[in-house]
Design brief:
Length: 569
């Protein structure tokens, strides 16, 4: 390919709409253009990257026995009504009507369609297991489409669905996909972690998210600092290890203390001269059905996902000041568990606390020497707090490290959730009808491309991992007026192409500086520069984008050396 034939419209200016680096660079380097909020055209450079990611995905899906198919984007409302999701999916579902006024959705995901397909095509255990996948546009009317391809409304996803006879079968399919995903992101050259994630209040099945580690990530993940330990979890999920040291004091006499104006943990802590660890923080939450009091230590944060799971509820919100006053009789900041007439959920640490400080349910007043069991009843004891970096790993006890991540894939054990709703069954060996056991497994292909940029960039532009770069090598003659340089560039380019490399010849009549800047911005892993000095020695200059390292290579060794260099990128 020659640059003069390539549609790669690079921009000098950073477009104002772009907040994150991948969005800025995708626009500036001529990979994408916006059509409307969260909807983009993928230009040729982007297509080359996407095709490479798709190729890796296909190879790894097929290696595990996956079969590719392609399902419709337009999905009839009836199927969604059958699964019960037409109503619960909410405004994220793009809905439309045809000329006969029949309702449809643009597929945000394909559990309904695939389950209906398998329901009619599979009847016997002999046809199982089945792993079916597609790579296709998905539609989600996200509340806040932003960050370019990281959160768009039309995006490309690979989704695979597994159908098994039972849970043991599902476990095998799930393991296969875990392995496939690990290989895919490794082959893409990304730094990532599979992390345990929350599967929601209803379900409780296994799920892992694959997170590309990048500071701009929206998700926080915790993983063990010990290399041999593979514990890693989304902060929503990370489990606490309870340290009981220091709880051997004798309970002392409960007493009221005046704490005027001390609302926050910091204020109470300095006023009463106690550490935040000795304070019980009491927060009131509304679940839609009831108000509950949640107790965590003063130095901790409530984890609302864990809390919702502990309560088995779908929605939670902090109670407002009016509710707080009507339930506790005091303004916000003085709630406490003693003589409080609502359900009490205590974090594991609070259940073990001795002689704590808590609000007295009275303005400007706290209680000291509060002891659970003696002074108040706990209805639910559970891990309901956020775990933070530095806390012990639940698997090995070493310290946890926190990092930011971008979710590029998720694998999920669905069990019989959809097969039951849609009555998708098979006949087992004894002729008994049983629900199919399912799993679903998604990779955001366009998000993966953006995540790769979030993780691999510098001041000058993108630094593609070689495996997913749009071109592996760009060949640049320094002066396009120098005939020897131009003809050598041509020869070098042809040799690289003949040797099977994906090379691009920058044949534009631009200054060398402009070509170098574009090459850096677009992020080709290697740049072969044909200039006078190198030519005099029958050499070419090779610059490694990632390190900036410049090597002089004998022209005879061109193909070998380029191959070696790419192998390490
Ligand atoms: P998120 O929590 O980021 O909204 P999700 O958990 O809803 O994502 P899944 O249903 O698990 O997403 O979809 C599988 C994959 O599809 C995700 O891991 C992600 O890579 C990709 N994806 C989901 N939503 C978007 C989006 N709006 N734009 C781009 N990619 C997306
Ligand atoms: Mg997800």
């Amino acid at each position: 390919m020659r640059t003069t034939e390539l549609l790669a419209p690079t921009l000098r200016e950073v477009p104002a709409e772009a907040e994150v680096i991948s969005h800025k660079l995708l626009l500036r380097a001529g990979f994408i253009r916006r059509e409307t909020a969260g909807v983009y055209t993928y230009l040729p450079l982007a297509m080359r990257v996407l095709n490479k990611i798709n190729q890796i995905i296909r190879e790894e899906m097929d290696r595990q026995g996956g079969q590719e198919l392609l399902m419709p984007i337009i999905q009839p409302a009836e199927l969604w009504q059958e699964s019960g999701r037409w109503d619960v999916y909410g405004p994220e579902l793009f809905r439309l009507k045809d000329r006969h006024n029949r309702e449809f959705a643009l597929g945000p995901t394909h559990e309904e369609i695939i389950t209906a397909l398998v329901r009619s095509e599979v009847s016997s255990y002999k046809q199982l297991p089945l792993l079916l996948y597609q790579i296709q546009n998905k539609y989600r009317d996200e509340r806040r489409p932003r960050f370019g391809l990281l959160r768009s409304r039309e995006f490309i996803m690979k989704d695979l669905y597994s159908f098994d006879r039972d849970d043991e079968g599902l476990q095998i399919s799930y393991q296969k996909m875990h392995e496939a995903y690990t290989r895919i992101f490794q082959r893409c050259g990304l730094r990532f972690r599979p992390v345990e994630a929350d599967s929601g209040a209803i379900g409780g099945s296994d799920t892992h998210e694959f997170m590309v580690l990048a500071d701009s990530g929206e998700a926080a993940v915790l993983f063990c600092e010990k290399e041999e330990c593979d514990y890693a979890a989304n902060v929503e999920k990370a489990a606490q290890v309870i340290v009981t040291a220091g709880h051997d004091e004798e309970p002392e006499l409960l007493a009221e203390m005046s704490t005027p104006g001390a609302h926050t943990v910091e204020e109470v802590s300095s006023f009463l001269k106690v550490t935040p660890q000795k304070i019980i923080k009491t927060l009131l939450y509304e679940t839609g059905l009831e108000v509950v009091a949640v107790l965590v230590r003063g130095d901790r944060e409530v984890n609302e996902i864990k809390l919702a799971n502990a309560l088995g509820c779908l929605h939670l919100s902090l109670a407002g000041p009016d509710t707080v006053r009507s339930i506790t009789g005091a303004q916000v900041g003085f709630a406490g568990p003693v003589k409080l007439n609502v359900k009490i959920v205590a974090d594991l640490e609070v259940a073990a606390i001795v002689n704590a400080v808590a609000g007295a349910n009275k303005d400007d007043t706290h209680l000291i020497n509060v002891n659970p069991a003696r002074d108040f009843n706990i209805d639910v004891v559970a891990d309901v707090r956020m775990v933070r970096a530095g806390e012990p790993c639940p698997r090995c006890g070493e310290a946890l490290i926190e990092a930011k991540g971008i979710e590029v894939g998720q694998i999920f054990k669905l069990g019989d959730k959809y097969s039951k709703a849609l009555r998708a069954v098979y006949l087992d060996e004894s002729g008994r009808s049983r629900s199919l056991i399912m799993g679903c497994y998604g990779i955001g292909v366009t998000r993966t491309m953006a995540a790769a940029i979030e993780q691999n960039n510098d001041r000058d532009g993108i630094i593609w991992p070689a495996a997913i770069a749009p071109f592996q090598v760009v060949v640049v003659p320094v002066s396009n007026k120098d005939e020897t340089q131009v003809s050598t560039a041509e020869v070098v380019y042809n040799r690289l192409v003949a040797a099977g490399f994906e090379a691009l010849l920058d044949d534009r009549s631009e200054r060398a500086g402009v070509k170098f800047k574009d090459a850096d911005l677009i992020g080709y892993p290697l740049r072969v520069t044909i200039g006078a000095k190198a030519l005099a020695n029958k050499q070419v200059e090779v610059r490694v984008r990632r390190t900036g390292e410049v090597l002089m290579i004998d022209q005879d060794e061109l193909e070998n050396r380029i191959g070696e260099l790419l192998g390490g990128l």
